[in-house]
Amino acid sequence: MLERLGDARRAGRSVLAILAGSAINQDGKSNGIMAPNPGAQIAVLDSACKSARVDPSEIGYVEAHGTGTVLGDRIEAHALGKVYGRRRSAAAPLMLGSIKPNIGHLEGAAGIAGLIKAVLMVQRGFMVPSGGFAEPHPDIPFDELGLEVASEFREWPAVSGRPRRAGVSSFGVSGTNAHVIVEQVDLVGGDAVSGEEDGGGVGLVGGGADGGVVPWVISGKTASALAAQAGRLERYVRARPELDAVDVGYSLVTTRSVFDHRAVVVGDGRDELLAGLVGVADGRPDAAVICGGAVPTGKTVVVFPGQGAQWLGMGGQLYARYPVFAQAFDAVVDELDRHLRCRLREVMWGDDEHLLNTTEFAQPSLFAVEVALFRLLEFWGVRPDFVMGHSVGELTAAHVAGSLCLQDAAMLVAARGRLMQALPAGGAMVAVQASEDEVRPMLGHDVSIAAVNGPASVVISGARDTVNGIAGRLRERGRRIHALAVSHAFHSPLMEPMIAEFRAVAAEVTAGRPSIGVISNVTGQLVADDFASTDYWAGHIRAAVRFADSVRYANCAGANRFIEVGPSGGLTSLIEETLADAQIALVPTLRKDRPEPASVTAAAAHAFVWGAGLDWVAVFAGLNAKRVELPTYAFQHQKFWLAPARPVSDLAAEQTLPRMNHPWR
């Protein structure tokens, strides 16, 4: 790729060399179509030096056109001597070479082949010999011209801080002459290019030295190609300890194609990352590796959990690490604080766990973390086809889908939690291992089904004595029973006293049609204009959460990737129970027992290997990462030579052409 140097550095390219100057001319009506013109060649060399603003003595090597004819080579050598060889000492002649003896004359591509060779030499600091060269041609006075043909490998150090420079010639058969000068990238800081600019300073780690996580993304057309690619990368990086883990990760996602067989190694240092590559190569990936086969036709659902998922300190590490998360979190909390009696940050990141777990603060806290986490994933390129929420999580879904503005959503969330908290304490909620059909006949006027979370996972809620009685009868039938630690009996008749006041708050809200499909946990169907109805949000408090129906709807609509965007992974097990026979990816984004940056990065990687879109450049943004050279694709070579049905007879062999050691055999 040819690009302006400043643009290349801003874009994070790995700059191989600088095209310092160039010139082109035509010898016109002179010596005939097959005879080079010495004056024209001298002129193009001199013009290229002036274009590069360098003295000819600063050129250390020239990749010659090298016609291979007595006349052409002699004329070219004299032109080089006239421009480059003069004023050179016998101990420091201009080195010459040509790639044609190695690969033949590529005609229209001859010049670019020589340019590639020259770029590699100035970049890597050595000169390579011209193939097949044995001794100088007697008709060319190399010593007098200040020239020497490169006949062996030799180091090419920069002299006195001056970059290495090489000239490259390409002469057309009709008299067109071209010459370019390439030079080594700046010796100091020239290749320390920064990553893609985004203005947000969002990234995973700061230079790989702060203990943050780094993803290494690899892929292959087949499972065996993926394993081979992992092995090739591991050997290459292990042999080069100077390579930075962030640079390797950034280069993998900016310079490599992505195929369906994928693996992402997530680690906080070289040793862990290299060990993960070994696991992929050996077919034994460890916990640091996320592997999968992309399903491009599948759809993605983002699921927001409800009350009970919160924990003290949630979101704090993400706030410190990712500016996009922090900006979104600040905006949400600023709106919520207008309706709360305490500053939400102090509750969430303080030391009073009981206060956080009160409904008044638990629901706003979850809303703040879920919205900010969604914005971070959105910045990273995650684009869900559907969103849905469990209980209060549906308010988050309505907001991120564009139906509720932030001001209205924050007002509803805060009012919902405050009014529920103000209800008299009491009631009970019990999760039972039973179907809705088995439980419903047992209900009374003061008990409801609060949630249908799976085919055999129901939550009942209401008056404590009645709930405990139903639970006891189910226990006698051998059903598992689990009492939930809650302050109130949510989604039950005990919520009735606060509904009228909440309805009045909801009447102040203006809701539009969502821009992302929202699956209602009241109906288990796709939302149309439901959110615009005050009755919907009032009924939402009392109605059962039909989570299993919502999950089935999403799966029937083609969803096979479920990302739980919240502080826990509790909903993923419920989804797994509901879709036990389906091939799906279940992706929790955060877990209380794992560092948040590692958890969210692994979640993004998990969605990616299953085919979700992800902008890895955004993941690496703001890291001052640069592209570095990495091994190329591990092609899985196969031979397809046709084997004869029977051996060729000696007589037949004698009648054929003599055997040759052809390179294609």
TrEMBL record:
Pfam families, sorted: Acyl_transf_1, KAsynt_C_assoc, Ketoacyl-synt_C
Highest classification ranks of the organism: Bacteria, Bacillati, Actinomycetota, Actinomycetes, Mycobacteriales
Annotated Ketosynthase family 3 (KS3) domain residues: 1-184
SUPFAM superfamilies reported for this sequence: FabD/lysophospholipase-like, Probable ACP-binding domain of malonyl-CoA ACP transacylase, Thiolase-like
Gene3D superfamilies named in the record: 3.30.70.3290, 3.40.47.10, Malonyl-Coenzyme A Acyl Carrier Protein, domain 2
Keyword Transferase carried by entry: yes
The name this protein goes by in its record: Ketosynthase family 3 (KS3) domain-containing protein
GO-annotated biological processes: fatty acid biosynthetic process
Entries under PROSITE patterns matching the protein: KS3_2 (PS52004)
Keywords: Acyltransferase, Phosphopantetheine, Phosphoprotein, Transferase
Naturally occurring in which organism (per UniProt): Mycobacterium shinjukuense
Single GO term (MF): fatty acid synthase activity
